[in-house]
């Protein structure tokens, strides 16, 4: 049967969460139920959009999505393709993996009823095309396939489907990648329709003459249990998990006086047969409702468990839900005057229609995303929105005709926004700049307070026009306050993970069937930093591929991909600092990492206030934070920034009233560059790098050791400088795709658990393989971060996002990890390593100038006659092995050599490492004669020559 959702009132439809099963091959076997059958499709913003956005539907969520039929002033708009694409491919047959729906596109010559009749018994959705009229029908049938068809098999399958359709199908649908507009109709056209037919899913086995295909490509054949029909379903777009339609029955019972009365135990015994049947017909449309129906019936005089079960199945397959009118005619008097209303204000025709309340938020989100506002409309009695702009209606006297005074170019208010706690309210705006580019901005409503200069300046910068003068400015603010659309959206104020979705300033990935999420900011210009240019394929060819074989470049890209994993794995913030001389390619590495998410405008600088860096870190939540030129930062501020970024917490502040403001939280991985290390910078400010700072910002030698700067392989370029410039230029032309491709997959709730477990395993393997025996916990922590970066790269290699061979990311991260260990001075405790390094550094800097050389003659030390020492710190002499030993005076040792450290701790480490000669009684200060002391023995710290030797671990 064919049901038109405009005229029939209660539209039969496949039962929600209908069970799909594959028949057992043994004769007479009962089919095994396989709930939650999923179909994959690809979505597109419009006909010019080359990038498929993968989405997963159940048949039910697909139908409720496509039952929406908004009015549009033009044909081009949201589109879809009934296929899944291979990872990383753009639109086109070359990237098609599987086809999940057969689409019959009819442009005339047949009526909808005639074509649908050919598919009697099969589930399908029919909807009119944009150009459809009653006189010239143009429509589509969408048939869910019981099992997806591989792209190579599609031409054969298409031919048989077309034959079943009486060859009415448009030949262009043979193109597997064919794009279809979602249902829409011209403004003012009332001939449109969207309808659903109940039945089983179309299987290859249902198509004649395909035996050879089935044998060569064994597909899993499914058929559907003919489900009940959901009345008056309201629209919802879903790419997440199945909706729980038990909740739908709960909403019905909560709102329907009849369902409450009929199911109450005290009323069941006296309930008349017709009303009992009415209760069952309205409940059985919901899957898994049997338990509730039995509990609502077991006190009835005619109740029998087996017979009632049979009755449920019979009603589910053959009987439409009894209407409210019929229930009242059968004697029920408890219905409210005027009937029960659905969320859109319509009166429901059957109790089951009240399940629409389950979709109240989703409906408004879908309508906001899909519906086209009319060309002209009024806001109250004060404003009118036209294609030419927003006008305020004013009049000098009460009896005068209102005059329309232009306030600005057209700015539509499409939704009101607020966060999960119903705070941070905003107004979602849509406007078009003079070049015809449509802009969307979720404007925080707090910007409307006061003079409002900030929001007007932002609108002007982004292409809106605003009339000059105080009255126009006040009128614009009044318009934005007066506009109160029904649509709502959840506002988030920073990128990254939010309620299962990954939010970027211009896109949202994944998430369940919840309210639409929008990015809300008081700085709309920041959105431009997360730009896209080129395609994933061009980025792979011009950026990723040339980086292969270059550890620092490969690691930079992997560092760019890794931040979204922090939240999923519960890993800490951290950073990587590329240290090296100028002009060796450090800034190129930052460009490579940034290209994962956007252009080079994503690169920020260390030369900023702590508050400024806090704001930047918030805007890079769950995304790479590239920071250039560490040497430009103040040493003290850099140390504080390293702690802040590592902890992921901003500064506590008080508001105007003295109350504490909410502390900003952020998750980042930092990729930094500079000629100085964090230690050098802080030492210049009289500070000491502590273990926490060292672990938070690990240092990597930018020079890869091949006389090619940061590179090891320049792939035939004339020089490393030329190669660097080529990569840097390519990053400005190809960017913003790899990160989106990765989070698009990570946000898939089906794939996410297995991806996370795989990443965990890869991290542990990296740690187990590359952490030397006896290493401290600090080294292990840093190894985990390198392992996280390596895992991100290897997963993206497997997913086809990175065009490298397996192991490329691990090898690059291993080399960078080994560089960090070498710079650190070993794998021992940081404080111990730091103590030895500081003593060695003092001797390196002052070994000739502040240590007096002497020799011992006949047991008495004598000066080197050529030596004059200013600000003497001690003495130096040749030991028995002809190597130089250093005797440091106690005051210089405590105040200068151990500056910033505990001298007792430094002494303890030197003793443990065998670098300090003790007195006969074991005391660390050795008594010895020095030049000028005569026979008096002076206490000194006697350092062995080994202090200047190999790294001490």
From TrEMBL:
The lineage of its organism: Bacteria, Pseudomonadati, Pseudomonadota, Betaproteobacteria, Burkholderiales. It holds the Pfam family DUF927. This is DUF927 domain-containing protein. Residues 383-664 form the DUF927 domain. InterPro entries: DUF927.
């Amino acid at each position: 049967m064919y049901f038109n959702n405009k005229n029939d009132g209660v539209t039969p439809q496949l039962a929600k969460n209908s069970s799909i099963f594959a028949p057992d091959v043994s004769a007479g076997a009962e089919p095994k139920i396989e709930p939650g059958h999923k179909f994959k499709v690809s979505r597109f913003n419009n006909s010019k959009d080359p990038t498929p956005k993968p989405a997963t539907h159940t048949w039910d969520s697909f139908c409720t999505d496509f039952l929406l039929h908004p009015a549009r002033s033009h044909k081009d708009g949201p589109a879809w393709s009934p296929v899944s694409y291979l990872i990383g491919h753009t639109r086109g047959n070359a990237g098609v993996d599987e086809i999940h729906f057969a689409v019959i596109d009819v442009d005339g010559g047949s009526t909808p009823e005639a074509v649908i009749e050919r598919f009697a018994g099969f589930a399908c959705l029919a909807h009119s095309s944009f150009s459809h009229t009653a006189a010239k029908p143009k429509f589509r049938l969408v048939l869910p396939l019981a099992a997806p068809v591989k792209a190579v098999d599609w031409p054969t399958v298409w031919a048989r489907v077309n034959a079943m359709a009486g060859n009415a199908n448009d030949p262009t649908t043979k193109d597997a990648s064919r794009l279809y507009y979602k249902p829409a109709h011209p403004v003012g056209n009332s001939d449109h329709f969207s309808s659903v037919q109940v039945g089983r899913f179309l299987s290859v086995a249902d198509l004649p003459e395909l035996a050879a295909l089935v044998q060569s490509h064994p597909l899993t054949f499914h058929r559907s249990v003919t489900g009940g029909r959901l009345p008056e379903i309201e629209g919802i777009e879903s790419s997440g998990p199945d909706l729980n339609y038990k909740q739908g029955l709960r909403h019905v019972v909560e709102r329907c006086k009849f369902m409450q009365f009929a199911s109450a135990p005290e009323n069941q015994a006296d309930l008349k047969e017709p009303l009992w049947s009415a209760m069952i017909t309205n409940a059985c449309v919901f899957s898994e409702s049997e338990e509730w129906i039995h509990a609502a019936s077991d006190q009835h005089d005619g109740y029998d468990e087996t017979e009632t079960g049979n009755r449920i199945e019979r009603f589910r397959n053959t009987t439409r839900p009894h209407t409210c009118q019929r229930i009242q005619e059968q004697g029920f008097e408890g219905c409210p005057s005027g009937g029960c209303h659905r969320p859109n204000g319509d009166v429901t025709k059957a109790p089951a229609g009240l399940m629409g309340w389950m979709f109240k938020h989703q409906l408004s989100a879908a309508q906001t995303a899909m519906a086209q506002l009319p060309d002209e409309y009024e806001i109250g009695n004060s404003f009118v929105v036209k294609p030419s702009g927003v006008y305020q209606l004013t009049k000098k006297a009460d009896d005068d005709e209102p005059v329309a005074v232009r306030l600005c170019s057209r700015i539509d208010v499409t939704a009101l926004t607020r966060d999960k706690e119903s705070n941070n309210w905003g107004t979602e705006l849509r406007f078009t700049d003079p070049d015809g580019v449509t802009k969307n901005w979720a404007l925080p409503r707090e910007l409307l307070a006061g003079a409002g200069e900030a929001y007007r300046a932002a609108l002007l910068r982004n292409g809106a026009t605003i009339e000059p003068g105080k009255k126009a400015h006040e009128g614009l603010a009044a318009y934005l306050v007066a506009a109160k659309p029904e649509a709502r959206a959840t506002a988030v104020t920073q990128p990254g993970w939010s309620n299962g979705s990954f939010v970027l300033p211009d896109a949202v990935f994944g998430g369940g069937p919840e309210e639409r999420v929008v990015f809300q900011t008081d700085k709309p210009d920041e959105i431009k930093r997360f730009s896209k240019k080129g395609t994933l394929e061009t980025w792979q060819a011009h950026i990723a591929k040339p980086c292969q074989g270059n550890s620092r470049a490969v690691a930079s890209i992997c560092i760019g991909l890794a931040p979204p994993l922090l939240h999923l794995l519960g890993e800490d913030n951290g950073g990587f600092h590329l240290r090296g001389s100028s002009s060796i390619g450090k800034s190129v590495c930052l460009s490579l990492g940034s290209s994962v998410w956007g252009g080079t405008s994503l690169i920020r600088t260390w030369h900023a206030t702590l508050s400024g860096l806090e704001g930047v870190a918030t805007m890079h939540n769950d995304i790479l934070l590239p920071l250039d030129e560490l040497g430009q930062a103040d040493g003290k501020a850099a140390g504080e920034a390293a702690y802040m970024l590592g902890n992921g917490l901003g500064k506590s502040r008080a508001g105007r009233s003295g109350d504490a403001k909410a502390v900003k939280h952020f998750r980042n991985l930092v990729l930094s560059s500079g000629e100085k290390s964090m230690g050098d910078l802080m030492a210049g400010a009289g500070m000491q790098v502590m273990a926490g700072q060292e672990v938070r910002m690990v240092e990597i030698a930018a020079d890869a050791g091949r006389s090619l700067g940061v590179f090891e392989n320049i792939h035939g370029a004339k020089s490393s400088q030329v190669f660097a410039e080529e990569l840097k230029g390519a990053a400005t032309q190809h960017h913003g795709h790899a990160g989106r491709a990765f989070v698009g997959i990570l946000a898939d709730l089906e794939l996410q658990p297995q991806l996370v477990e795989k990443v965990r395993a890869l991290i542990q393997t990296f740690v187990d393989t590359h952490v030397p025996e006896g290493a401290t916990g600090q080294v292990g922590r840093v190894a985990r971060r390198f392992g996280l970066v390596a895992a991100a790269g290897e997963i993206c290699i497997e997913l086809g996002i990175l065009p490298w061979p397996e192991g490329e990311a691990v090898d690059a991260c291993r080399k960078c990890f080994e560089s960090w260990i070498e710079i650190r001075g070993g794998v021992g405790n940081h404080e111990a390593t730091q103590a030895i390094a500081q003593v060695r550094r003092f001797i390196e800097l002052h070994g000739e100038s502040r240590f007096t050389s002497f020799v011992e003659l006949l047991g008495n030390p004598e000066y080197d006659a050529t030596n004059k020492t200013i600000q003497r710190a001690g003495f130096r002499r040749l030991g028995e092995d002809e190597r130089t030993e250093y005797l440091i005076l106690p005051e210089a040792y405590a105040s200068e050599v151990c500056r910033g450290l505990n001298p007792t701790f430094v002494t303890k480490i030197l003793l443990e490492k065998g670098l300090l000669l003790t007195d006969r009684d074991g005391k660390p200060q050795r008594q010895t004669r020095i030049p000028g002391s005569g026979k008096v023995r002076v206490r000194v710290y006697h350092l062995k020559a080994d202090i200047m030797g190999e790294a001490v671990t």
